[in-house]
Structure formats: C-alpha cells, structure tokens
C-alpha cells in the first residue's frame, strides 16, 4: 500500500509540474499584465506568416498537454510496480466439537458433539450450518460457537417434512444458505433436495424420497441419484453435484430441475461465484472444473492421470481425491483434499501451497466475508476455523455467492 501511494504521488507531482509549464508557455499566465499587453501590441505588428507560425506552435503545445501528458503519466505510473498482497496466514482453532469424540450434543464450543460432519456453509451474518451426516440432522453454529440443532432428530433417519425435530433426513450431505437465510440440503440417501427456512420448517424442494433416477422436471417429478454438493447463487438458484448421475443440476426458485453439465466422474463439491460460474470438484478425476453459466466446462486445476499432491499451475497442480470447494468474492477457490488431509487455495494464476494440514479427512470448506475459513473435519468430528491474519479481505459481502 505504501509503494502504491508513492507511485500515485509521483505521478500527480509530475502532472502538476508539466501542466504548470505548458500553461505558462501557452497562455503566459505568469507574466505581468503590462507585459502581456505589450506583447499583444507587438503581435499586431508582426507579419501574418510569423503570427501563423506562432499559433501553430502554441496549438501543438496545447495538444501535447491534452493528449501526450496523460499518456506520459500512465507510462510513469506503470513503471513503478505496486506492492503485492501477501498470501494470507491462518490461525487454526477448534470452533465446535471435540476431536475424536462423536455424539449429538448441543452446546458451546467443545461441549458440542458431531458424528461425521459432511458439509458446511456460512451465512452473511457469520453463522455456520453443518450437515451432521450420521446423526441425520442439520446443525447451526452461532458466531460465538454455540451449537444447536436446526432440523431433524439425532439417530432418526427418514424423509418426513415438518418443523424442527419433526423433520427427518437420511445421511444429509451438501448444504448451502441463501441471502434470506434459507438453508438447502442435499438429502443424499433420500435422493432429494430439501429446504429449511430460518424458522426450521423443512420442505422437499425437488426429487422424491427413496426414488433415485436421472430426470429433469418440476418438484417431485425430478429425480437425483445420491446428490452430494450444493451451492446457491445470488438469485436463489440451487446447483447440485449429482454424484452418481455424474452431472451438475440446477434447481430454480420454482423448483424446476434442469441439467447444466454432464461428463464428470464423481462430482462431490460445488460452488458458484457472483457471475454465475460454477466450480466443481470431480473427486475421482482429481480435478477442479469450471462450468460457465451456459454449461461450457473447462479444467481449472488438477490432472486426471495422477492423484498425488503438489502445487503448480493448472494441470501441473495435483490433488488426491478433492471433495469440497468454496469461492470468495475475488475468485479465489478453496479446496479440501481428503487423501492428503489438506486445504488448498487456487487463485486466478494457479495453485498455492496448502493452507493447513492439521485435519483428518476434511470434506467441506466455507469462507466468510472477512476471508476466514470453516472446515468440516469429518473424522475428527470437528468444525475448524481458520482465522485470516494477513492480507485484505477476500470477499465483498454484496457480491457473495450465497
């Protein structure tokens, strides 16, 4: 930031100096009024061709000020490199749950218990939502770390709609939250997409319980087959990583299901940015794919030929069974890699080294408006928080992807 200010001040100072010189040369504003009048009289006695020549010179000087000075200023500005932002450093803490101890207890911080937390999302206020897979419940973690059960009943699988504990899920996986606070859940073994209101009312948005398939359509007429990852865009459309159908599905706010893209090996994680681009973790292909708003698929990072682990750019970057993905407001991706127990950041230039290796089978990641990360650390039965300690915030809340 300091070097950027120096660069700007140099450019402003140069422009002011040059402007002053041109102004004085062209318009004689620094001369006394008597001398200017004398010059005016002398100009009338000057031959026409000399007056014409002087006029041409002055016009050229004015043109140089108006046209060439901004170009020169820009060249000077670009010649002084701006200071680059450092990659963030994260301080990792156990946000909720107790490492190695499973259960279904509500409570604050380490008093709470989870059993295989499988996906995570964060809302605009900083509250965290978790699919507690083996408990068949949806949990909510406040900013202060207080864990409550939003919907479902621990150890009671099913498919019933209803409010709070009346509702039932069957091994829920993906989760996302929209700007109004509605939570969407990929109810994996029910092959459905569920909606949980802020008050805890659960309804089935699309699909039919225990009826797997691959059918586009409206509401209950649509079919999914073990849906995993979920994301929601700023308009409220839901994107589904339909894992066994090897496709990305889109569910409109009216519950109409269409297929956005096909041809994946086993899509497990999905995220969407403010421009409508969808990012897909293809776990068995060991790659991160990008799907445009019109369904064009390109590979961003990873190689299908290898599932080792290593940083690099595009296909040179290697993942070992990636599972979850999140995107911030500037286009940086955060990827969980289960085989190597790591979190990776994929920026617009490629892949940077892992952000942390203190996990055990991390399956999902979310990023808040301050750039803090939340990880569903499944085998540790923990929700881990990475507090960003350097650099600028990575996400503009107004352009958030949820």
In short:
The protein is α+β, with helices and mostly antiparallel strands and 402 residues long. The chain is 18% helix and 36% strand. A five-stranded antiparallel beta sheet has the order 2-6-5-4-3, with no helix packed on it.
Verbal overview:
By secondary structure, the protein is of the alpha+beta class. The chain contains three helices and 27 strands. It has a five-stranded antiparallel sheet with strand order 2-6-5-4-3, with no helix packed on it. Strand 18 and strand 19 (287-291) form a beta hairpin. Helix 1 (2-27) runs antiparallel to helix 3 (48-79). It is globular, with a radius of gyration of 30 Å. It starts with a helix and ends in a 14-residue tail after the last strand.
